[in-house]
What we know:
The protein has helices at residues 16-26, 75-88, 132-150, 154-157, 168-189, 197-208, 254-264, 291-302, 309-332, 347-361; strands spanning 33-38, 46-52, 57-62, 96-100, 110-114, 219-221, 230-233, 239-243, 250-252.
Amino acid sequence: MTVDAELPAGVPGIDVPGLAGWLAAELPGSGRITAVDLLAGGRSNLTYGITLDGGRRIVLRRPPLGHVQPTAHDMGREYRVLSALGKGSDVPVPTTLAFCDDEAVIGARFYLMDFVDGKVLRTPEDAPGMTPEQASALSDRLAEALAAVHLVDLEKTGLTDFGRPAGYMARQLRRWGKQWDGSQEAIRATGAERHLPEYDRLVARLAERLPAEDGGLTGLVHGDFRLDNALARLEPRPEITAVVDWEMSTLGDPLSDLGLTLVYWTQASDAQAERLPVGASITAAPGFHTRRRFAERYAEITGFDLDALDFYVAFACFKLAVILEGIHARYLQKATVGEGFEAIGEGVPALLERAHRILDDGSVW
Length: 365
């Protein structure tokens, strides 16, 4: 590949000549870049499709543009966990190709991985011919994928030092609190105002319910596990071809993942206020498991006790509210790429209210 060959036009977040030169040095023989496009999906780290000579497709991941929290969007960690899982686990993940630690190449650290055949399913329009039987099977496959993440052999994969599981939930409360504060500063800098008193009350309630520092469940945690952070295929049979978006993965309490999955999971009986501006609404279609049945399937596979699930789902509401507030801040800074960001901020107060309701009722159902 020659860097001075004719290259396609760039897209926001990618320096195409810089990427071409780096590819020539790091992956010689990979071929000339013929197209670069922003892939649908992901409202945090950005995902691009790179087309090479001969039609080969690879995928590039980089941090978002604009307002970025200092502890978030670590490309190196995401690359490490994907590489480890690809070599020593039953978790379906893309094959990693190369990692770039030099921000000067395209403007940020990034990594490359193989393109995986599969589709992001968010709305019924994404799978118009899906039958209830396929939806039910896909629900099971996703529960099995989540269980596979949490049952990963940390020794075999070399991930025993990937995090500090003791005191995980307490650190999460502190970490996301700092993220919230950073987003509030960014929002104020734009001249906008946010008044959300239920946030502070929720933090206090969650702090009262934190599990003991030691003991309890420990395993690999994805950090943002949901249907539309996976690639799915319905034919010849429903399957999850890859779990993606590992930017928040670490070692910790697996039930934090399950809690977040259930917050994202929409079902037909949900009131309008419970339908988030992110996540997959397709799970409300006929045949998909209810949240209860999804959790039951997960428990059947893992054997984990779900008696304290209300805390984990309420905590997930808090965490997702912080994530959405960060996205809202980037939207106000005009530093987002893609569509649908204008409604993100509206989901924050709804999530805070939902968390309080769950804690009041002591049940997620």
